[in-house]
Structure formats: C-alpha cells, structure tokens
C-alpha cells in the first residue's frame, strides 16, 4: 500500500502535520520503514515490525522535552495504525512500545532517555523474535504419533510448531484449508511437504465434511478470515481447538461480536453488479463443470466487500499456545492487566 506525504497529513490535526513535516525533513518516513522491515524479513510479525519502526523513529527524532518525545511516538503510532487495512496486530505492537516508553522515561535529559529507549527497544525486539522457537518447543508436545491435524491458512507459528514436532520424528498428517481469496494455505502445504509431512489441501467449505477425520485443530493469530467457523465446527465435533500466538500479539480490545472488529471500509454491502450471461445447463452438465470451464471468480470489488478477519469467541478455544506457556483464553485479560496497570 503506497502512502504519499499528503495522504498521511490529511488525517491529522494542523499541529500534528507540522510535527510530521519536521520529521520528514530528516528524511524519515515511518510507514516506508515499517514496510521495508516486513519486506526484509518475511518471518517478522507485524507488531514487532511496528516496534522496530518506532525504535527507528526515536533514533531520528529531535526534540527538547520528554512530553514532545512521547507526542512524537504517539503520532508515529497513529500513522502506522492508519496505514494498514488490518490495524489490530500493528496496534498491539504500538501500544506495547508506548507502554514501554512511559515506564522507561525518567527525569534524565532527553538524549539519555533516547539512548536508553533505542538500546532497550532493540533488545526487546531481539527477545521477541525468539518467541516463535519457544512456542514451537512448547506446542510440539501436543503432537502425537499417528494423529491428523487441521490447519487453517498460513501461520508462521503453527508451521514452526509442526516442523519442530517433525524434527523429533513424530509422524502425523495435516489437512490445510486453501484459504480463499489469498490461497495462503497452499504456501503452508509446500512448507510442510518439503519437510516430509503428509499434507492435503482442502476447500474452506469442506471443513464440515472432514472435521470427524481430524484429531485437533491448530490456528495462528495472523488476522485471517475463516477461523471462527472452523472453531464452531470443532466445538460441535468435540475436537480440540488450539490457537498459537506470541504474547506480544495480545491487544487491548473489547470484542463482543464480529461487528466490533475495525474495518477500513464498509463491508457486506449489497452491490450493484452486472455480470456476463452464463451458458445454460443441460441434463449432462453440472454447475461445477461450468464453473471450471469459465473460471468464474469474484471481482475485486466483491472481495473487498468481505471481511478480512473474524473474531473467535474464547469459549471455542481450548487453549492458547504462547511463549508464556499454555494459557486459558481468559488469561489473556490477566496478562494485559499485568502489563498495562
């Protein structure tokens, strides 16, 4: 997603615009830096990329007071949150860094505080990058010989967990949802197959058909649509459902329903679409064959009219596999209270 300086400035007050102009004179664009970090390291999470970008913002900031210092970080966080379609993961990183900043500042001079934040911020990022290995080690204990696992879409944490289990010579098989419209489940299948793990890609709509064949479900926290309905099916079928996520993805949001999730534009609208005429079916043809021949696909407008992520209620999650250990979903609130209060 490209963002010009004027696009960003239009979203903020005049005071903020002036501050951002001062920053831009230093040739530092926090959105460009954030996107560059993600590009440089495909394995980095969005919260950690946001924190790294904010650490670089601190390094490039020239202020005279601590209050100006905090204001710059708040404004940088606001820009990052508004620059992505799914702001939840970015919000987790920005809020965590701001909490770290407010706890770290003292009565020392600005330059000393700046040096402290940069050095300790980088240390935090280095530690956070190691969370995935810790999660994989903890979660691999859930994988037993001979079980069949259902994985939704693509998750770096889930992949790391399964690869860790495979490295211990545990034999298991994995069904992977295709995850339309991105098809990211295909990436998961290739990664696991290359490690010698038997895999099969299934249509998102086929989960209800195969749910009785699996032993457990593993999903990540990458902000993917479709997790909620899989969790519902797993609950009905009495199959364990585990979410795998780093603790730095915990975010302070009070979600009660799907429609409490933030969206960048209106969704689920009734669109005025015009379609080309379809061939008529005869008794020897099925709608499935016609679809294959004509390669019918949703338009970009139809895709953008759909949600990009959904909310899975805690009662559908048996446990969270995190770098803090195995957590009951309700423990997330406790961990957030410890962190922010």
From TrEMBL:
InterPro entries registered for this protein in UniProt: eIF2B_alpha/beta/delta, elF-2B_alpha_N, IF-2B-related, IF_2B-like_C, NagB/RpiA_transferase-like
Origin: domain of life: Eukaryota
GO molecular function, one term: guanyl-nucleotide exchange factor activity
GO cellular component: cytosol; eukaryotic translation initiation factor 2B complex
Keywords: Cytoplasm, Initiation factor, Protein biosynthesis
Localisation per UniProt entry: Cytoplasm, Cytosol
Record family assignment: Belongs to the eIF-2B alpha/beta/delta subunits family.
Oligomer status and interactors: Component of the translation initiation factor 2B (eIF2B) complex which is a heterodecamer of two sets of five different subunits: alpha, beta, gamma, delta and epsilon. Subunits alpha, beta and delta comprise a regulatory subcomplex and subunits epsilon and gamma comprise a catalytic subcomplex. Within the complex, the hexameric regulatory complex resides at the center, with the two heterodimeric catalytic subcomplexes bound on opposite sides.
UniProt-recorded name of the protein: Translation initiation factor eIF2B subunit alpha
Organism the protein comes from: Pneumocystis wakefieldiae
